[in-house]
Amino acid sequence: MDFIAVDWGSTRFRAWSMGADGDVLDSVESDTGLKAVEGGRFEAALMTACGDWLARDPGLPVLMSGMVGSRAGWKEAPYCLCPADLAAVTADALRFEVAGHPAAILPGATCDDALGHADVMRGEEVQIFGAAGLLGVEDAVICIPGTHSKWARLEGGRLAGFETHMTGEIFALLRNQSLVGALAEGDADDPAAFRDGLTHGMAAPLAHAAFAARADALRGTLPATSISAFLSGVLIGAELARRPEADEVVLMATGILAERYGAALDHVGAQVRFVDAKDATRAGQVRAAATLWPERVPA
Amino acid sequence: MDFIAVDWGSTRFRAWSMGADGDVLDSVESDTGLKAVEGGRFEAALMTACGDWLARDPGLPVLMSGMVGSRAGWKEAPYCLCPADLAAVTADALRFEVAGHPAAILPGATCDDALGHADVMRGEEVQIFGAAGLLGVEDAVICIPGTHSKWARLEGGRLAGFETHMTGEIFALLRNQSLVGALAEGDADDPAAFRDGLTHGMAAPLAHAAFAARADALRGTLPATSISAFLSGVLIGAELARRPEADEVVLMATGILAERYGAALDHVGAQVRFVDAKDATRAGQVRAAATLWPERVPA
């Protein structure tokens, strides 16, 4: 083993025992997200998951990324300010010891947008550098859809800046808790309704475009079973309307999100290059570990 | 008494005993909104509230507006299609009898927006015609802020069209149930934070601008006690960014909404003319009743 890679978020815990050349020797995944850890017993939770691996090699380092470094996580690792390359991010890692093992928590990243407001990410920064490594690119626009979708610009190997859209979270709130979602039946896919929502979301302000799902349903032009797909289109359309200029977008998504963002990007004429999020996480952690512990992890 | 005016919504019941010249002889207001009426006993609920008035005059008409005419209300009154003047709206009223009294439910209004989607309102149409009567205008842009804010265009005395923004509902969802609101403490007013949110909401897409409240708070540039005001600014800014062109806006709001929309409209250089929503409802119902029952209600 070279090191242990941990992706520790609010609801999920994932760890990999990494060998030379970035190959995965073993892995664990559980629901022991940060919220499930009681009384601040993060070290005990880590030992429960990875203690066997650690026992085998007293010098084995542990690299962690994700919300584990947030204020609500194990130890707060202050954000690294963009533009930042991987070396700058790892230089800001929070380093400490766990049961005698060298450990580090990556700091996440922050940037200031053109309008004078901050943006933040935790965990996606390692995925972005990992995707760049996997694809062998130094310049890219990378989209990571989700609860809080990220649009990142990689320029000359540096994370130049990024923009968060609360697309997934607002979709879930509207679908499950609003007067628009109250008319919806199920969440079946409906590519035509999705595309219709997409063009509406790209053209009209979100708070108006979303209401069309209710109005169209009441007027009888949108079936209750298509409201969910239409709303998804509205939300993704609003996000895509203000995306960074790019002929190609690196899309880190699987399942329905991969399908929908793929279709949406195709609709606006962008080429899509898919990267698996877990692969990107591991690849980024190997790159970061090689910087942090060059004597243990080959670059 | 000339007629009984009822404004019956999902959560509130309001009724006025109206005399000649539109003066209010008596009024009742209660929590017996439509949702509180069990087993479809709407007539019994109306009699409980207004039975004494009805008993005094066997021919007394009852005019109702609001969600009472929706699918989830007493009787569904299909929407009147815009452009529509008051006569067109009253012509589409659903007329029936309640305990021998002539009764009517106003139909609400619907329109098709420039993007081919429907919009709907119930209850606001009577407020819009009422406001026009109170102000003596035939052309106006009228804003009715709330859960679902309405921006209506009155042209030559006709309701030409309107646009709904889910501003209040999305604000409440973000404030009370999102990861942005989770960082907020209280809902104190903060004019500077509100104005900051306003300019951000006017410039950036809603799902991104709202996230700035979280990012700024995590970076330490927005106090937790100012998040609510900032978010309110973002939501209202997003609404105002796409308002109809107008030098003057008729604003139907009271309290904090009147303050915030007033400040926001002032910020964008629009003149504001306030109209009280209850006054507008009654004035609109007097105009509608005069059309429906000219033998009883003087125009």
From TrEMBL, chains A, B:
Transmembrane segments: none annotated. InterPro entries: DGOK (IPR007729), DGOK_C (IPR042257), DGOK_N (IPR042258). This is 2-dehydro-3-deoxygalactonokinase. It comes from Tropicimonas omnivorans. The lineage of its organism: Bacteria, Pseudomonadati, Pseudomonadota, Alphaproteobacteria, Rhodobacterales.
